[in-house]
Amino acid sequence: MMTMQKKRTQWLSLLLSSVGLMLLGSAAHAQLVNTDKGWVYGNATATYKTWLGIPYAASTGPILFGPNNRWKPPQPVTPWVGIRYSMFAGSICEQAQPPFGLAAGSEDCLFINIGAPANATATSKLPVIVYVHGGAMTGGSGTDPNIDGTVIPGKANVVFVTMNYRVGSLGFLGHAGLFAESGGSANAGNYGLLDVIQALKWIKTNIANFGGDPNHVTLTGGSSGALMVWDLLASSAANGLYARAITESYSPSGAPNVLGGVISAGAAKTQGTTFANAAGCTGSDAAVISCLRGKDPGSLMTAQGITTLGSLWGPVYGGGSLLPRSPYQALLTGNYNHVTMINGTNHDEGRFVSNVQYDLGAFAPMTAAQYDDYLTKTYGSRKDEVLAQYNPADYAALAYDTTKPNYSLAYAAIITDSGFACTARTVNKLIGNSIPALYAYELNDPKAYAIFPHFNYDLGSYHGAEAYYIMQQATAALGGTAEQIALSNQIMTYWGKFAATGSPNGGGGPTWTKYSPSTDGYITFEPAATGAAGTNSRMLPSSTFDSFHKCAFWSTFGI
What we know:
Rossmann fold; 18 strands; 16% strand
């Protein structure tokens, strides 16, 4: 039986909501939407509506006069009374931000952001694109500067959703004490992944009221966000929460010396001990976890910085049912969700890495000694083979100073080809005949818009550049050309059609042919010289892709 206090709370909520409606006026009703936890009121313009900072789970840290939810699965949100004004983004999740690794954000951070066309209603049933942000599993948020939900809803006719999830040590700590505490439920090390699953559940329950179709959800991610998508494809816990998937600039690999991103349960426990020691927490497993839960976030970020020097953070596999195997092992064995997919990369992924690591990050290009040291440590006895394929002298013409070898660009090309391009092609060949349909792409804009400085060479289509086209950050105000905007419009149309029908075709532009391992073709996205719609992409054979990225060579490394 409903208690008197609960009845009073509901009546008060109804009264306040009614007063709010009257004050807002009927013209604002389109911005007012009900969720399973209460009403939210968003922003509206002539072309789009947005709702920002809607909580999909409770605070993930200590709650005043309440529980400490640090390193626990996402907990339910307490329903709110009246109308929640969702016009501004919520806090990002706690993270150590460059360049000094200082703590930023909050543990009260599990927020969802929604964009919809201006005319979307609860009966629209528009396809939904859910975008999982990147950030190397240690940073980022659903409201990063390169993530924008105001243009794509109208251009692609979709509801566009982003979310925050726990990152770094707060999202992926796999200490033995947490494994024991979870009782074998595989929560340990996968709190960030559990957050995204919870967000998908929230979307399934609520997105119809914002104009979306909960049965037509396309799960999308870029960089480490794409890794999260592959993790979810490999986890049965997310089945039924999405219908299709798009992975941008990350494909799993089983080869050594290739970008990882997931950690075995055994390695996670070792990393957890190192982290706890760095934080000054020792003793029994239970005592260590209690100590860590009592630390302030700044102390944890400091410990994370020490720990990260020798390892990465990311979802943990092999510790239970949530992620029983790595994404690559799941693909090899067929134990993944066989949905229709788009998978692709950017032509110059590694230039972001080399720029951040050397030219911009260290204020100096990579040196000959640094390049030699990298080749020796990474490829050992095969170092000379790699050097023959990636001779820095061959990259001089691509730099601003064409008179000397460019070690940064040679290094960038290795990262691009071995870590992104050829791993994507290998995955495409592996799953191409096993899922209903696969569409492969490469973004190849030699002058892709870049929000950060670069001094020694153009970044080309660097790692992360696709976001500016998929969400049209490449606007004239940001330096984007008419041709780039036309390319962005076409890509958004492809994404929208794919989300709606499972095929990117039907909205104009060149036909994007399904991927087949036998023909191995892909579409390349290139700004047209004229900027005319429909002329800025083309299907290319695998020989073009393979020869540029040296995939035959990398196949001898198991890539």
